[in-house]
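Case study 2.
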Amino acid sequence: MDSIKNRRTIRKYTQQDIPADLLNGLLEEAFRASTMGNMQLYSVVVTRDAEMKQKLAPAHFNQPMVTSAPVVLTFCADFNRFSKWCRMRKAEPGYDNPISFLNAASDTLLVTQNFCTLAEAHGLGICYLGTTVYNPDQIVDILHLPELVMPIATITVGYPDECPPQPDRLPVSGIVHEEVYHDYSEKDIDEIYAYKEGLPENKHFVEINHTETLAQIFTDIRYKKTDNEVMSERLKAVLKRQGFRKE
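Prediction:
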C-alpha cells in the first residue's frame, strides 16, 4: 500500500531497456483483472521502435515522454477478437453497439490500472496520457486498429530519471458517500477544495495566467468547452468508424 500512497507520475526516464520478459510478465499479471463475462475485452499494442514513437507523438500533442520513454503501451478496447471467435464457432455476435464499447472500455481501464500498479511496484515509472481519447482517429490509423477496436489509454513506461513532488489529492471525505450520494453544499465545496486552492504553486498558476480563480484555469485554459465539443464529435465519428455506433 505504501507504494500506491507514495506514487507519482514520471515523465523523464533513463534509457535503460525494459526486458521483454519483465514487461510481458507484468502484462500477464495485469490480465488477472476483473473482466466482463471473463471475455477479456482488451488488447495492448507495445511500441518500442523510435520511428513508431515519432508517429504516435503528434496524437499526444508531442509530449516529450512519448519519444523518450523506452516503451509506450496503448491499451485498446477490443471486441474484434471475441467476435471473430464467436463467428468461427457458429455464434453470431451482437457487439457493434455503445454498451459493448462501454464494457470493453471498462475492461481495458481495469487492466491498465493493474499494469500501472504492478510496474511501479517493480521499480518502473509510468505516465498516463489522457490524450488517447482526444485523437483516437490518428492512433487507429498509426496502429492499424481494425473495427471493434478503440484506443482507450496510453502509458509511457521506463526506469525513472526524476523524483517529482506528488500532486495534491482531494480529501477522502469529499469523495466518499455513505449509502447514497449526498450532494454538495457551497460550504462542502469550499472545504473540499480549500487545500488545493491554497497551495502556493496553484496560487502562482492563477497569477501567471491572469485568472481570478483556480477553477478558471480548468474551464478557460486547460479543458475548454469548445475543445471538449470538438473532441466529442471526433470521438463519436471514430466510434462509428470502428463499428460501435450505427447512427
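The chain has a mean pLDDT of 96.
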